[in-house]
Design a protein that fits this description.
The protein has helices at about 45-55, 70-80, 95-100, 115-130, 145-150, 155-170, 185-200, 215-230, 245-260, 280-290, 310-315, 345-380, and strands spanning about 15-20, 20-25, 30-35, 60-65, 85-90, 105-110, 135-140, 180-185, 205, 235-240, 265-270, 300-305, 320-325, 330-335, 335-345. The chain is of the alpha/beta class and about 375 residues long. It has 2 domains: about 15-260, Dihydropteroate synthase-like (TIM Barrel), CATH 3.20.20; about 265-365, Sulfite Reductase Hemoprotein, domain 1 (2-Layer Sandwich), CATH 3.30.413. The strands form 3 sheets. An 8-stranded parallel beta sheet has the order 8-7-6-5-4-3-10-9.
């Protein structure tokens, strides 16, 4: 009997769609999204918030377009954004057309909610004309009345039926550049709906537990629900829905993907919860270190352990390790082996320096490898 490697997540096979220049689905990396909470009509405030999300690493950003003032501001926002912009549309088909014309990379829309077949046809034409994909966004809190009457309450079957009904409308108009979400604030409902939908179609899935709550409770709920789906290979793009600033959603999303070994961005800090054995203040050290290295995007792993019980073992598996020792003198490990010792006074400054140096080395090696590959490509082309 063959045993699958325990870190090996087998992702569900899905077709690929493009959100602007960013691929979603297929064998593309799982992307991290968030949504602005500024008034979209206030382009300056919206762009400033997008900038903060970009610094946190967001791949795709969504903005709400409930009125003409919002879609009028969209061209400026799209031009300023470094990542694809998704326009969130609910009921008014004209907003969808205006958003496509304004340069939105994707429309979040439920085609069954925007009126007649002619209106749907107009929206699809605008999307095709402007290279715009779509997301069908089903939410347990806003299911269609006929489905609630049929099933009696929001349930996975009702959510999947709603999603497939909307998908069929787009398919009937020969439009297939879309992904689907079936979100709920109830973890069990959301997970069951996504599991059923994953079996029912091969479209890319946008995964999330909607209205999850504040940063602590929402992170826990999202990690349980989204984490179980991602672990099962379900999910091509994610949004962690928190009552917090959107850049926090991005950071939590990347931490989730890092924990599942699905995607790596920035410094992964492995640290102990601290106990009476600790030889320095682990909690304050990690708090300060996280803030000081937040700007680093290069993937690497750093262990910060309070004593020698687990410290050396954790350090063996990390790029940089730090383990508490006696007499306020601690051990620093580089690439898993003891490198030098360090006194308490400058722990954070010293570790930040080591991390920044390692990041520079990794990036330089990556650039060198890129130059070699480019040279080899030119040489092969010349032959």
């Amino acid at each position: 009997m063959s045993i699958r490697p325990y870190r090996d997540i087998q992702r569900r096979k899905s077709r690929r769609v493009m959100v602007g220049s960013v691929p979603v689905g297929g064998d593309s990396p799982i992307t991290v999204q968030t949504m602005t909470n500024t008034l979209t009509a206030d382009a300056e405030a919206t762009i400033a918030q997008i900038r903060r999300c970009e610094e946190a690493g967001v791949d795709i950003i969504r903005v709400s377009c409930p009125d003409e003032e919002s879609t009028a501001a969209l061209p400026r926002i799209v031009k300023a954004a470094k990542v694809p912009v998704v326009a969130d549309i609910h009921f008014h088909y004209r907003r969808a057309i205006e958003a496509a014309e304004a340069g939105a990379a994707c429309l979040r829309i439920n085609p069954g909610n925007i009126g007649s077949a002619e209106r749907v046809r107009e929206v699809v034409k605008a999307a095709k004309d402007h290279g715009c994909s779509m997301r069908i966004g089903v939410n347990a809190g806003s299911l269609e009345k006929d489905l609630l009457e049929k099933y009696g309450e929001p349930c996975p079957e009702a959510m999947v039926e709603s999603a497939l009904d909307h998908a069929r409308i787009l398919q009937d108009h020969d439009f297939h550049e879309f992904k689907i979400s079936v979100k709920a604030s109830d973890v069990f409902l959301a997970v069951a709906a996504y599991q059923q939908l994953a079996e029912a179609c091969d479209y890319p899935l946008h995964v999330g537990v909607t209205e999850a709550g504040g940063i602590r409770a929402g992170t826990v709920k999202s990690s349980i629900g989204m984490g179980s789906l991602l672990w099962a290979g379900i999910g091509d793009t994610i949004r962690v829905s928190l009552s917090a600033e959107p850049e926090e959603e991005v950071r939590v999303g990347f931490e989730m993907l890092k924990a599942l070994n699905l995607r790596h961005r920035g410094v992964n800090i492995i640290s102990c919860p601290s106990c009476a054995r600790q030889q320095y203040d682990v909690i304050r050290t990690v708090e300060a270190l996280e803030k000081r290295v937040a700007h680093i995007t290069t993937p690497m792993t750093v262990s910060v352990i309070g004593c020698v019980v687990n410290g050396p073992g954790e350090a063996r598996e990390t790029d940089i390790g730090f383990t508490g020792g006696g007499s306020n003198t601690h051990q620093v490990y580089i690439a898993g082996v003891p490198h030098h010792r360090l006194k308490d006074a400058n722990v954070v400054d010293h570790l930040v320096g080591l991390i920044e140096k390692k990041a520079a080395e990794i990036e330089a090696a990556k650039a060198h490898e890129g130059r070699l590959k480019e040279a080899e490509r030119h040489r092969t082309a010349a032959e």
